[in-house]
């Protein structure tokens, strides 16, 4: 009998933190350089340039020394001045959460929200901006991970720019797994991290700031300086002859370089294609097993994570625990409003490989059958996934 209780997971198919690429793990174990060793100064500049190449943007992205929640809060603190009016677009837990940070730095945060299994409509954003010329900044979470749903970020970016407003995008769990870049969505601040689709451990953030974004930050008298929440402190730190505001996470920068080399070497389009194929194979299997998506429509389901609607009468925590204990497969729970309602499977970085769809289906189906005594046909699910994989 297969029983894995207490042992290491055999497969970490989560929505972040994710399993890291072996090359990243090797890079993390390199000697730790002094931060002002010329070799590390050159390394930091090189990695910053590689991040710009991966993000397909001219301006060199900032590498902040903490996982992306740091970058989200720092972006709010740096960009939003006390007299600003912010429009926060909400389709899930992360989108809603950003409103709390925004509200710390200005008096008026308007919220435009949809159900947490839905996506925002660019036409509705357009109407809101026409009605409210006082709105200066629009904030959006591209892939709200606890819902597994995507917003049409490029289209919304078009609308925001047509109205001449600033656009802040949380692309933490989408960048690197699909076609989205700071320029594609015209973001003034584009926040992502290496700990989702780039396959690194949680530790760093990447922040691309447009020229307009920098202008706004520099005009904001409240933008933090000499603070861990400061973006300004890091503006020039990527240059080998400029100082760091504080010690960077040396080992993690090595890990990030390995991840960026892997991403650029494989080719972003190829990387996105395997994320997409893995998600499609997994969803075909789910449907064949009689399970359904949390997303209202498959067209808004993210290629980097699938949120499954927990079947009636099933306890999500029990289901997830059984998959972990009996099959050694770790999945993610929902969060906030989706907690208990969804089970989430990540297709991110090293786990965005089509055969992991089969692993996920067998563990999910097997665990469900152990809970409910044989009501799911795992074989049918595997066949449906294999028909997509080919
Ligand atoms: C993972 C993630 C973050 C970072 O937050 P943590 O919960 O601390 O990992 C931010 N935004 C989105 C959309 C994410 O998926």
UniProtKB/TrEMBL annotation:
SUPFAM superfamilies: PLP-dependent transferases (SSF53383). GO terms for molecular function: alanine-glyoxylate transaminase activity; L-serine-pyruvate transaminase activity. Keywords: Aminotransferase, Pyridoxal phosphate, Transferase. One of its GO terms (biological process) is glycine biosynthetic process, by transamination of glyoxylate. The keyword Transferase applies. It holds the Pfam family Aminotran_5. Substrate binds at residue 344. Residues 106-335 form the Aminotransferase class V domain. The modification N6-(pyridoxal phosphate)lysine is found at residue 196. Its cofactor is pyridoxal 5'-phosphate. InterPro entries: Aminotrans_V_dom (IPR000192), PyrdxlP-dep_Trfase (IPR015424), PyrdxlP-dep_Trfase_major (IPR015421), PyrdxlP-dep_Trfase_small (IPR015422), SP_NH2Trfase/AEP_transaminase (IPR024169). PANTHER family: ALANINE--GLYOXYLATE AMINOTRANSFERASE (PTHR21152:SF40), AMINOTRANSFERASE CLASS V (PTHR21152). Belongs to the class-V pyridoxal-phosphate-dependent aminotransferase family. This is Aminotransferase class V-fold PLP-dependent enzyme. It comes from Acerihabitans arboris. The lineage of its organism: Bacteria, Pseudomonadati, Pseudomonadota, Gammaproteobacteria, Enterobacterales.
């Amino acid at each position: 009998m297969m029983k894995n209780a207490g042992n290491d997971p055999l497969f970490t198919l989560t929505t972040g933190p994710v399993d890291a690429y072996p090359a990243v793990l090797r890079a993390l174990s390199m000697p730790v350089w002094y931060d002002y060793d010329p070799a590390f100064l050159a390394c930091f500049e090189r990695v910053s340039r590689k991040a710009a190449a991966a993000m397909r943007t001219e301006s060199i992205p900032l590498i902040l020394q903490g996982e992306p929640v740091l970058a989200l809060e720092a972006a709010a603190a740096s960009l939003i001045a006390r007299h600003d009016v912010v429009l926060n677009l909400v389709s899930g837990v992360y989108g809603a959460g950003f409103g709390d940070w925004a509200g710390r730095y200005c008096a008026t945060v308007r919220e435009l929200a949809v159900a947490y299994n839905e996506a925002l409509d660019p036409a509705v954003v357009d109407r809101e901006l026409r009605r409210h010329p006082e709105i200066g900044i629009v904030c959006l979470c591209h892939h709200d991970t606890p819902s597994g749903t995507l917003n049409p970020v490029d289209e919304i970016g078009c609308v925001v720019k047509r109205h001449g407003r600033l656009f802040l995008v949380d692309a933490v769990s989408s960048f690197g797994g699909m076609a989205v870049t700071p320029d594609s969505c015209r973001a003034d601040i584009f926040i992502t991290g290496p700990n989702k689709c780039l396959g690194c451990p949680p530790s760093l953030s990447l922040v691309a700031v447009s020229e307009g974004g920098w202008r706004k930050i520099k005009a904001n008298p409240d933008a933090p300086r000499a603070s861990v929440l400061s973006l300004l402190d890091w503006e020039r730190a990527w240059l080998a002859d400029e100082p760091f505001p504080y010690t960077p996470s040396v080992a993690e920068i090595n890990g990030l370089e390995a991840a960026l080399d892997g991403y650029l070497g494989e080719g972003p389009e190829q990387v996105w294609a395997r994320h997409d194929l893995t998600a499609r194979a997994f969803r075909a299997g789910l449907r064949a097993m009689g399970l359904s998506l949390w997303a209202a429509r498959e067209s808004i389901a993210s290629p980097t994570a699938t949120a499954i609607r927990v079947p009636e009468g099933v306890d999500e925590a029990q289901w997830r625990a059984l998959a972990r204990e009996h099959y050694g497969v770790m999945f993610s729970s929902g969060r906030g409003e989706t907690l208990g309602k969804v089970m989430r499977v990540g297709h991110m970085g090293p786990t965005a490989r089509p055969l992991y769809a089969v692993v996920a289906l067998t563990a999910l189906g097997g665990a469900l059958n152990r809970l409910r005594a044989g009501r799911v046909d795992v074989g049918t699910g595997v066949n449906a996934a294999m028909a997509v994989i080919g």
